[in-house]
TrEMBL record:
Occurrences of domain HTH asnC-type (ranges): 4-65
GO biological process terms held by the UniProt record: response to amino acid
Name the UniProt record assigns to this protein: Lrp/AsnC family transcriptional regulator
Xref: PANTHER family: LEUCINE-RESPONSIVE REGULATORY PROTEIN (PTHR30154), TRANSCRIPTIONAL REGULATOR AZLB (PTHR30154:SF34)
A Gene Ontology term for the protein's cellular component: cytosol
PROSITE patterns listed in its UniProt record: HTH_ASNC_2
InterPro entries assigned: AsnC-type_HTH_dom, Dimeric_a/b-barrel, Tscrpt_reg_AsnC-like, Tscrpt_reg_AsnC/Lrp_C, WH-like_DNA-bd_sf, WH_DNA-bd_sf
Organism whose genome encodes this protein: Agromyces tardus
Keywords, in A-Z order: DNA-binding, Transcription, Transcription regulation
SMART domains for this protein: HTH_ASNC (SM00344)
One Pfam family cited in the UniProt record for this chain: HTH_AsnC-type
Molecular function in Gene Ontology: sequence-specific DNA binding
Length: 153
């Protein structure tokens, strides 16, 4: 699927507003048949429109109340191997490759400052990592969202 038509956008906006809505509830809200909504949902899912369910799970009740961002500077020839090793650290919940002075931005969760120190040490011990800069997240000010984009033309 190369893009979303108005029906897809309306369906995605309804899901963004109420992620737990049933197919029947979405059909009622959008004035469509249940079969149409189900077919659209199946097509959207098959196209990869939906992100993983993991994104919606809060790590705090799992015992990880702190979140940090670790800027990782890497020897470029080792980037692939560094990413593979970072992915093996369970507390790493996300990582992005960046342009500019930082090579990777790694998002981690941790139990406390000592745990963060340990995680940072694990990353620093990876062959190819030159240095890290760690920032403790003070709070999520704008949560992940796509609702405003779905309303744009």
């Amino acid at each position: 699927m190369n893009g979303y038509d108005q029906v897809d956008r309306a369906l995605l906006a309804a899901l963004a507003a109420d992620p737990r809505a049933t197919v029947v509830a979405l059909a009622d809200r959008l004035g469509m048949s249940r079969n149409t909504v189900q077919a659209r949902m199946s097509r959207l899912e098959a196209s990869g429109a939906f992100l993983s369910f993991d994104r919606s799970i809060d790590p705090v009740p799992l015992g990880y109340p702190l979140e940090a961002f670790i800027a990782v500077h890497v020897r470029q020839k080792r980037l692939t191997e560094v990413v593979e090793e970072i992915a093996q650290i369970p507390e790493v919940i996300q990582a992005h490759g960046l342009s500019g002075p930082i090579d990777l931005l790694v998002r981690v969760v941790c139990r406390d400052a000592h745990d963060l120190f340990r995680i940072d040490g694990e990353i620093l011990a990876i062959d190819g990592v030159e240095r890290t800069e760690t920032s403790l997240a003070m709070g999520e000010l704008i949560p992940f969202r796509l609702g405003p984009l779905l309303g744009r033309d």
